[in-house]
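Hi P.,

Sorry for the delay on this. The queue was packed all week, but I finally got your sequence through. Input first:
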Amino acid sequence: MNIHLGLAPLVSLIAGILILAVPRLLNYIVAIYLIVIGLIGLFGAGNFRL
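Then the structure:
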């Protein structure tokens, strides 16, 4: 059984959990999430698979 997990959904899941756990960090989490997703888009993270 092969499970391929993309990097963007994993980052989204972690960001969502952090927002639920610590709502005061929302601005920082959203900013970091957007930067990470932007970098993934620019550098083509299609090569990264878990």
